[in-house]
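Work Package 3 (structural annotation) set out to generate three-dimensional models for the target panel prioritized at the project kickoff. During this period the team completed the workflow that converts sequence records into discrete structure tokens, so that structures can be stored uniformly alongside our sequence database. As a representative example, we reproduce one entry of 627 residues exactly as it appears in the project archive.
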Amino acid sequence: MQEKGTISIHTENIFPIIKKFLYSDNEIFLRELVSNAVDATQKIKRLSSLGQYNGDLGQLQVEVSFDENAKTITISDNGLGMTADEIKKYINQIAFSGATEFMEKFKEAKDANEIIGRFGLGFYSAFMVADQVEIQTLSYQEGAEPARWICDGSTEFEITEGNRTTRGTDVILHVNKESEEFVSQHKLQEILDKYAKFLPVPIKFGTKTEQEPDGEDEEGKPKYQSIEVDNFINDTHPIWTKSPSELKDEDYLNFYKELYPFSEDPLFWIHLNVDYPFNLTGVLYFPKVKNDFDFQKNKIKLFSRQVFITDEVKDIVPEFLMLLHGVIDSPDIPLNVSRSFLQADSNVKKINTYITKKVADKLSELFKADRKAYEEKWPDIGLFVKYGFISDDKFYEKAKDFTLLTNTAKETFTLNEYKEKVEGSQTDKDGQLVYIYTNEPAKQDAFIQSANKKGYDVLLMNSPIDNHFISHLEQKLEKTSLKRVDADVADKLIKKDEAPETVLTEEQSTQVKSIFEKAITKPGFKVELESLNPEELPVTVTMDEFMRRMKDMAAMGGGMGFYGSLPDNYKVVVNGNHKLISRLIQTDNEAKQTQLAKQAFDLALLSQGLLTGAELTEFVNRSVNLI
């Protein structure tokens, strides 16, 4: 048997394209070839179960080996095998309708996965690293003869009689000079660990040394001897392929440690298992996320039939759940995927919606089953929930019932509970409900105490996402606004009909304002005189809530860059009813007046953390002189 021919791809440009344009992703050749071998073994097993193959299956497995001297890598299986006719059908005829169409489509391709997936080039990815590829195969069919196929990277091929004596296929890569790094134990192990760790058929790669008991020594202590055993690199039945009823918490935790060996234990997990309207299995873990928002997003691994595809799952998993860890496996997502494919695929959109629902249902279940335990987890899961609350309307519809607000007294409330708590005392004269919050309780303590004295409750909003969460609350909650506790003096945070009477005459008010305007030399500070509770501070420095919030968002990269470029402007509120102001008026010495005004202003700056450097030193020295 001998035959020569031309591979039917209708273009001689295919191999240069594979070698040149797919080079950056060249390690996927091993994933493609091992996956093909796994498919072949699974198919023979299926034929056997259907009674269409009656021979001995033997131990079904795939073996990867290499020869460093010959510069070859071999992928062997004991699956279906192929006849010479099947080689011609499956290997020689790549499904292109013509060179022009191929080149047109190729222009749109963004990466190797997309090219391979779109044009059926799985086997031909071998030429990314090889300048010659050989197949030795023997079909399972009765009376089949072994066949050998060889191609040197041109469109020329040769089929001759093969030398394989057992059912299955060897794919032998004669690695090119540029890719010799792959002909090594370490590199091949690394790629197999990445892509084949959970394949459903045992993958053998060389041997490894293990210790086995070998009697006892003279002191009666156990002895061990080193033995060489086959190195199978994969777990063929990972936990996501099993039913939750078969698994214990320990199994989920052990699997998590296998995936993320240096991470803390997760808070809890969700086992995904659906077969309609798409197939999906997986396990998603809620990790402990530090409040500094410093986290890695690419921690969810996407598989297709237990073959690792990618850890960039943005279009499959909702953005706010990219903080989760775990695995997703769906045969409805092709092995070779690309970003543009994912964005357009209807199954991907359904999976995205399903995962959102499952996570929302799990959180709701935890909240209802054990609210105390849920509240204890809130510092860790609050970030997930708020992120979803902001970014996904479907999630919000469920999350509004288990989103918690925490006040400075460390009490927690649902949205409805908090409304009931404060609407009696924190509704303004126009019927608007005002929630007061702090993002830096230590720094804003004086303002918090002033608000508490008026019977106001103060929420703690100090997570990195709270700037956006606050704005979203105002959009979602009816007739409700939020103000930071230092956005104004306590008397003015919530506008009421009643107001303290002023003790200053109009002339005295003008005099006080003039004194402070002379004492304050810093730009961006506007003096206003207010009639406030005499117990309030004599001077308070505040920034308008809207302007400060826009600047905070700009600092976080929230698309408010215009506001970030504006200079800071503050309001200096002088409490005309404070006894210090009366003392100021009664002082005849203009220098003394300026000194007192400056001291009161600096105290207000100090309480806001705005007094630094030379100005802080000056304030300290002045304070010593006043004592």
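Residues 95-103, 109-120 have pLDDT under 50 and may be disordered.
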